Amino acid sequence: MSETINLLIVDDHPLIREGLRKILSFEPQIHVLGEVANGALAVEFCSQNAVDIVLLDINMPVMNGIEACRKIKELKPGLGIIALTIHDQDEYLFELIKYGISGYVLKDVHPHQLIKTILGVARGESFIPPALTARVLAEFSRLTSGDQDKKHQMLTEREIDVLKQVATGQSNKDIAKALYISEKTVKNHLTNIFQKIGVADRTQAALYAIREKLVDI
């Protein structure tokens, strides 16, 4: 990730796109690389440009945000996606988490919190609003309630340490500093953790750690 965060705004309302651009212009680290009006254009833009973060609406014509998220993550798995929406329905959030969303922000968010979320996701962190976390955990637990084998028992002690750090929202850099290891080693541990516990990204790993009571949030 470069020092400048190249961001794509995806929303079908021109006024919202313009408002977001103005808000984000106050943060020198964020560069709005482009704006598009639907998910299909977002996928095309990401395939042709060096995008770091996508700020993605959900309900859009041509292709909605959920499908766009799926296609973008297939195209560029390391790209960060933040859903910015008026909806707090569980089904939207569950689908987006399944496809690898890094953040979920409601459109009434304070501009400072939006910028903070973008900067955090760029560092490799994840964000789900506290009001939605309990519902996500409940659904995650329901979906996995039949799985009685404790997958985290396959993790090494160091991998559990890394997983605990992920669950508290720490970036790779922060984890490396806290555990006195390199960022490359952190990435290697995360690859092993994801494979062992059967998740696709940091958000799912964090939810797993909380559900299994490996960490108290």
Structure report:
With 217 residues, this protein is of the alpha/beta class. The protein folds into 2 domains: 5-132, Rossmann fold (3-Layer(aba) Sandwich); 144-211, Arc Repressor Mutant, subunit A. 52% of the residues lie in helices and 12% in strands. It is built from 10 helices and 5 strands; from the N terminus they run βαβαβαβαβαααααα. The protein has helices at residues 14-24, 39-48, 65-75, 90-99, 111-122, 130-143, 157-167, 172-179, 183-197, 202-211; strands at 5-10, 30-36, 53-56, 80-85, 103-106. Strands 2-1-3-4-5 form a 5-stranded parallel beta sheet, with helices on both faces. Helix 2 packs parallel to helix 3 (65-75), helix 3 runs parallel beside helix 4 and helix 7 packs across helix 9. It starts with a strand and ends in a 6-residue tail after the last helix.
- The name CATH uses for the topology of the largest domain is Rossmann fold
| Total E-strand runs | 5
What is the global morphology? globular
Mean pLDDT: 84
Range of helix content: 40-55%
| Biggest beta sheet attributes | 5 strands, parallel
**Rg of Cα set:** 17 Å
Range of strand content = 5-15%
Order of helices and strands: EHEHEHEHEHHHHHH
Tell me the number of helical segments per DSSP (H or I, 4 or more residues long). Answer: 10
Q: What CATH architecture label of the largest domain applies?
A: 3-Layer(aba) Sandwich
| CATH class categorisation of the largest domain | Alpha Beta
The stretches of 5 or more residues where confidence is low (pLDDT under 50) are none
Provide the CATH superfamily of the largest domain. Response regulator
Order of adjacent strands in the largest pleated sheet? 2-1-3-4-5
Judged by helices, strands and strand pairing, the structural class is alpha/beta
The structural domain count equals 2
- For the termini, the CA-CA separation is 28 Å
